[in-house]
Amino acid sequence: MPARLMKPHILVEDIPPEGLSVHYDDLSGILKDMEDIKTSGPVVGTASLTRMGDQVYLAGNVEARLTLSCDRCLEDFFAEISTSFTYLFAPASVEEPAERAMRIEDVELAQYDGIHIPTAHVFREQILLNIPERKLCSDTCKGICPNCGANLNRETCTCTHKDPDSAFAVLESLKKTSVPH
Ligand SMILES: [Zn+2]
Ligand SMILES: [Zn+2]
């Protein structure tokens, strides 16, 4: 079944009985509204859709190269996202049927309007799910000096770094308060 270039959503009535494969060469527009996420290359998505009665099974993958900003040093860095996923869409009008209460491993259960499968939304959701909550340019990123703003990955500064919560700082303050009288 040849891959076809399609719009960012699929009309369920266009899915033939043997299923439908779709391929998107560049979906970078789906992240346009995200202020802290920039794409630095095409966002490529593929999906195959199969109808099962009024439910639609979607198996796909998405690959993206993003420019993110490091939470510690605030510098931009590249992150590659490559992920596979499966969804089972049921019409929103259907009450939870008993068989769907049984969660299928690794299948996202979702609802659709009974007409369109929002493929672009699926790709977007999967990219966002795969961006780590704590975005770091490297696990060993030293961050920026809170005092002078120097990027400590590139330079050292002469500020003394005192973490107010560190055991050392607590000892220091104890020493100060226990001056003999
Ligand atoms: Zn960093
Ligand atoms: Zn400093």
Layout of secondary structure:
Elements: E1 10-11, E2 20-24, E3 37-39, E4 44-52, E5 55-69, E6 76-91, H1 98-101, E7 107-112, E8 116-117, H2 119-129, H3 167-177
Parallel strand pairs: 6-7
Antiparallel strand pairs: 1-8, 2-4, 3-5, 4-5, 5-6
Bound molecules: zinc ion (2 copies).
Question: Could you characterize the architecture of this molecule?
Answer:
- The protein is α+β, with helices and mostly antiparallel strands and 181 residues long.
- It folds into two domains: 10-129, no CATH class; 142-181, no CATH class.
- The chain is 14% helix and 32% strand.
- The chain contains three helices and eight strands.
- It has helices spanning 98-101, 119-129, 167-177; strands spanning 10-11, 20-24, 37-39, 44-52, 55-69, 76-91, 107-112, 116-117.
- The strands form two sheets. Strands 2, 3, 4, 5, 6 and 7 form a six-stranded mixed sheet that branches.
- It is elongated, with a radius of gyration of 25 Å.
- The N and C termini lie far apart (88 Å).
- The model is unreliable at 1-6 (pLDDT under 50).
- The structure holds zinc ion (2 copies).
- Residues 70, 72-73, 75, 136-137, 141 line the site of one zinc ion.
- One zinc ion is lined by residues 70, 72-73, 75, 136-137, 141.
